[in-house]
Amino acid sequence: MRNPARVPQAAAQGHLLFLEEDAVFQKLRGTTQQKLPMDVLVLEDEKHHGAQSLALQKVKGQERVRKTSLDLRREIIDVGGIQNLIELRKKRKQKKREALAASQEPPPEPEEITGPVEEETFLKAAVEGKMKVIEKFLADGGSPDTCDQFRRTALHRASLEGHMEILEKLLEHGATVDFQDRLDCTAMHWACRGGHLEVVKLLQSRGADTNKRDKLLSTPLHVAVRTGHVEIVQHFLSLGLDINAKDREGDSALHDAVRLNRYKIIKLLLLHGADMMTKNLAGKTPTDLVQLWQADTRQALEPPEPEPGSEQNGLQGPSETQQEPPQPVPAQ
Length: 332
What we know:
This protein has helices at about 5-20, 20-30, 40-50, 55-60, 70-80, 80-105, 120-130, 130-140, 155-160, 165-170, 185-195, 195-205, 220-225, 230-240, 255-260, 265-270, 285-300. By secondary structure, the protein is mostly helical. InterPro entries: Ankyrin_rpt, Ankyrin_rpt-contain_sf.
């Protein structure tokens, strides 16, 4: 089941993975000695924490603070009733959505392209969905496998964004369907990360390997589970892929689903026969990960024990001067 709210979320996530990779990498590395947009650490962060969108967090941070009940009551009276208040809020939300969509829309594509198209412009067009730029570059003899310094091709970029027409054009001109970038990710990995089932099916029909591994030895199934795209997971399971395939840390897709609390995906994996007792390199089964998660939650909810000497700060605690409770008198 695809949630419509996830479509802009996936697009925002894909946009950040390409245009804000450097910021994510620097945050994880804590250093500015060498600027790399995305490293293995970013894949590990996706593995352990799932997909994150800084743009969506920014939008959430701009949400209005909820007013007090008195303010709401006054506003209802001033506006003329609760129905008018609801309509007013709907209009405000609509304006915010339109402003956010307008800020993300690429500039319009020119009617006619004169002169040669640079490689950087070609790769950027794959992200922004500018078909005319792609066609002009390929018509001038440009290689469809042109890549950037991170070995990321236009096929990778268009797969993440879900630009079907551009993907078909690139494949028609001989783009390598399993071209691996510096993280050994193929276009199939990026399509799973972007949540585009139709792209997955297109790449598969052109001979893409659905069991290809990246630097973490993660399959596309692993990536789809971590990023929470249920339809893609269901499609892979229908193909009869190895449901218990393990990555570099010995984690199966079920390990990842339990760790990230992907409830629907957990049910899907179990219904298709995922092994609940398989162990990763740390010796943990998916069931063990549930128990560890419950233990961490219980520990977080338990009140902290008083530290020695806390009575000096006015806190309750053991006191040396505290009188002992009276002892019962033995019966004569």
